[in-house]
Amino acid sequence: xxKRAFDSTAVKSIFNLTNLLFITVLxxxxxxxxxxxxxxxxYVVILILFEAIFNFKIIKKSKPLKNLLDLYSIIFAFxxxxxxxxxxxxVLHYTLLPxxxxxxxxxxxxxxxxxxxxxxxxxxxxxxxxxxxLLGIITGLFVGWYPRLREAVTPVINVIASIPALVYAxxxxxxxxxxxxxxxxxxxxxxxxxxxxxxxSNVQGVDKKLIDTAxxxxxxxxxxxxxxLLPACAIPLLGSLRIRIATxxxxxxxxxxxxxxxxxxxxxxxxxxxxxYPKVFAGVILIxxxxxxxxxxxxxxxxxxxxxxxxHQ
Length: 313
Prior knowledge:
Blueprint: H1 8-14, H2 17-29, H3 41-60, H4 65-87, H5 100-109, H6 111-145, H7 147-161, H8 169-175, H9 179-204, H10 208-216, H11 221-232, H12 234-239, H13 241-259, H14 264-273, H15 277-305
Helix pairs in contact: 2-3, 2-4, 3-4, 3-5, 5-15, 6-7, 6-9, 6-13, 6-14, 7-9, 8-9, 9-13, 10-11, 13-14, 13-15, 14-15
């Protein structure tokens, strides 16, 4: 029996609202306007990339077809409304919200500055988050295990954790010898207290049977901490990692708007001061892409490296 070349699913995957919107957005990208427009090719590449990802996921069947259609239809509709609203209908202020082709064109011009800012920011985040989480895990492990220490230290950490790290930013930027040290310190202050409190709570929530089993194996306190409590708290810690990274990124971006000379936050602040809004929106988009990329790497680590964690749906 010869199979039909196209079944109903294949037809739906080609002739659907998402692909129609994609073609419409491409057509709108090449429409002329009374305002000065940059070449649309960078913007077109982004649209084609979204379309390629959409079709790849359909072929791979990684998600239900309806979910993919809804998601990518919203994406292309957003670009279409943005493009037409700023170029043709003038609903959006051309200067304050420039058309997408002008925004994405910036990536072809300022890519070296953006790459440098990306690495500057990521180095600061890496040092601040790693140091804050490591020290928070160690502190929380010991404080959570020893009742007397927990009663004495927990109220102090609660007070520190209740103060937003950004409150320290103006002061630390002034008193620290360099902005890098100030940024790492600010990120550390935003990561260490909540990680410590989370770890204390996780230690207290460990099943008592696990501790009794560890004692029956003649493990001392050090062995119980490292071989029983720490592995038991690993899954909740990884679950909070995305929140910690997002918090660190927010803190750093805000800190960079105060006293930095490079970085993603500085890039946005600098061009906002000059009212160069295509560069401002390009910087904001880059920050969003970086955050999504980091979350994707964390998700990959959770599902591939830590085998006992159930993959997220």
